[in-house]
Structures are given as C-alpha cells and as structure tokens.
Write a structure and sequence with these properties.
The chain is α+β, with helices and mostly antiparallel strands. 16% of the residues lie in helices and 39% in strands.
Length: 373
C-alpha cells in the first residue's frame, strides 16, 4: 500500500492553478482528470487540454510510489474544505474497472474514489520536454509579463477563418532586436516593446487561451522570476514549481508594420481619465456596444447615441485639428481601450485615416481604424 500527504493550503493552491487549463465541458473524459505522481517526497500534478499542459511540482510526504488519474472537479471539491494534512492512500478495489481506488482523508472527512482513469490513457505531449538549443530563451518579471500580454488582449481576433490572428505575435522590433508583442483583429492593432534581446528573425504566435492562462497565473508585483522558452512549434513558461507548455499557432502573421501610420498627424484628441470613466458607465447594459462615436473638433466633444437612437451622450476632450470634419470610431473599441489606458491620446492624418492611440506607457501603442458616422 502506497500513500502520500500534502498540506491542504498547498493542495488548494495547486488545484486552483490546474483548473485554469481543464475545460469545463469536453467530450473526452480523460481530459477532465489530473495525473498525479508522488514519490521521493514530491508530488507532480499534470493536466492537459491537448493544446497546452500545466505541470505543478510540490512538497509531499510520500511512502512508496503513487500514480493515478483522478477527476479534477472531485479533487477540487474536497480541497475546498480540507484542513491540515490531506492524505492519499492507494487501496485495491477488485469491483471497479480500475485496479486501485484512492482514499483521501483530512482531520475530519474521508473520501473514497473507486473509479480512477488508467494512467496509460492520459495524453503524453512532447512540448513539456526540453526544447532545442536554438530556441529563444529569456527571463521576465510578473509585471513585465502582464504588461506584455495584458495590453494586447482586447486586440486579439476571434475570427476562426484567420486563425493566425487568434493570438499574440512575439517578434523582434525592427532594427533593435528586442522583444516586441503584436496583436490585431483587423480593426485594431496593438504593439508593445521591451528591452529583452531576441534574434532578428524570431517569430512565434502564442494562442489566445495561453495568453489568458498567463494573465491568470501571474500577479502584479509577483517576485518569482519567469523563464520563457520558445521554439519553432512550442513554448514553455516556468515560474517557481509551475510549468505551462503548449503549442504555438502554426501560421504566418501578416506584415503589421504596413498598418502603422507614418505620416505627420493633423488631428489630435486627448480623452481624460474622468471622461473615460463616464464612457465606461455609459456602456452598462450594452446600449452603446455597437454604436459609433464621433470626435467633434469644433465643439471639443465626443458625441454618440445608442443603436436604437433612444439615448445620446457627450463627454469633453481636448483636441486640435488642421482639417475639417469629425472622426468616428466604434464605441466598444474605445471602451475596451479605456480599460487598458485610463487616459489616452488619439492622433490621425485625416478623418478617414487610422488613428494612433497612446497612453502613459511610451513603449506601447495601438492603431484603431475609423468608422463612418
């Protein structure tokens, strides 16, 4: 009989992280399980959705070697109320289709799981293994990771036909050989630069779900350094005892530099944080979600109305323009941009030209296509 035990607080932290990867609904039951291996006073827990894996290693008191697949939701429910040390003991169960059952106990409660999925059925993926020597490697902080990906989430496309836009493109900044992240949905473009050195020909597209996982894993001000490895097809992100690894999007990202305006801007509008707050409040209920808004440079007001024309609104901005007319944009785009940049400035060459959007971060910029009002 083999067994191991782990502190309840550690188990809860482990299960919470693993739950980020496991799909709530899937047609392959094994993907709803966590593969647990325990030996040599360590526990290794693995989950996968066939696109990315998460592997967590933690301390445990082990007796012998334990290995089994258990439904993650079952483990999550027990961990939610467990106290003290949680013990896992393997026992024989001839009446079950699996060879063994597992008894999970804490100081007050005992749970016996008679149905364990065969370990041999758990998918084994290659992207968790050491990557090629030629792979790009760098380290960053939690704040750097959240800045790099968090500034671009709202620009990632959800259009399935252009699947290569369904993620964040990591590449080298032209003529600088430093890491740059880019995302676009064809209507908006985001570019974030860093001082992390990479090869000039580097390019990789990290899928949207992986980006969401990265944002959920890391906390503002986190101390543990993050190690990133990116090869031609796979990525690995390691922080402390957690490894997130998966597939990159196999496609060619378009030449985004052609979209970035290079001419001298003739229109400039600055929207303050207070106006942004009012814009955000007005989106409540979705009445303005599909509406267009217009920067009226004559009155210095940002005007709009709901799609059913039942509501109209107006907030101030500070702007200058060398050309006549007003410039319109999708209100939802402005709203989502305001959640990233509490105050922002928009500059364009003309009313029908794309606008460059900038906040307080000098190394981050966005491009937004205009909308006819």
């Amino acid at each position: 009989m083999t067994s191991f035990s782990i502190e309840a607080t550690r188990l809860r932290r482990m299960v919470k992280a693993l739950d980020l990867v496991v799909e709530r609904r899937n047609t392959i039951p094994i993907l709803g399980t966590v593969l647990i291996r325990a030996k040599d006073n360590a526990i290794i827990a693995t989950v996968t959705d066939l696109e990315q894996d998460m592997i967590i290693t933690d301390e445990a008191v082990t007796e012998g070697k334990s290995e089994f697949c258990i439904n993650l939701d079952t483990l999550k429910r027990f961990a939610s109320f467990a106290t003290g040390a949680v013990a896992f003991t393997m026992v024989e169960t001839p009446k079950s289709f699996s060879e063994h059952a597992v008894e999970i106990t804490d100081s007050d409660t005992s749970l016996r799981v008679n149905t364990l999925w065969p370990v041999v059925d758990f998918p084994v993926n290659t992207w968790t293994k050491p990557q090629a020597v030629s792979a790009q490697r760098w380290k960053m902080s939690h704040d750097q990771a959240k800045r790099l990906f968090g500034n671009l989430l709202h620009c990632i496309s959800t259009e399935e036909t252009r699947y290569y836009l369904n993620g964040v493109f990591l590449t080298a900044k032209p003529e600088a050989n430093t890491l740059r992240a880019v995302a676009t949905d064809g209507h908006r473009l985001g570019v974030v630069d860093t001082d992390i050195p990479v090869d000039s020909d580097f390019g990789a597209i990290v899928p949207r779900k992986s980006v969401n996982l990265i944002m959920a894993m890391f906390t503002k001000g986190g101390n543990e350094p993050i190690s990133v490895t990116v090869s031609d097809l796979h990525y690995q992100i390691k922080v402390s005892d957690v490894l997130l690894a998966g597939k990159l999007i196999d496609g060619r990202f378009p030449d985004y530099t052609r979209v970035i305006p290079s001419g001298e801007p003739k229109m400039s509008a600055h929207v303050s944080a207070e106006s942004v707050k009012r814009l955000n409040a007005m989106l409540t209920g979705g009445r303005f979600a599909r509406s267009a808004v217009a920067f009226d440079y004559d009155t210095q007001r940002l005007n709009g109305q709901s799609a059913d024309s039942e509501y109209e609104f107006s907030v101030p901005f500070q702007g200058t323009s060398e050309v006549k007319g007003h410039q319109g944009f999708n209100f939802r785009f402005l709203y989502e941009q305001s959640r990233v940049t509490p105050a922002f400035t928009m500059k364009a060459a003309g009313v029908n030209d794309p606008a460059i959007v900038q906040g307080e971060d000098p190394d981050a910029m966005w491009v937004m296509m205009p909308m006819r009002v």
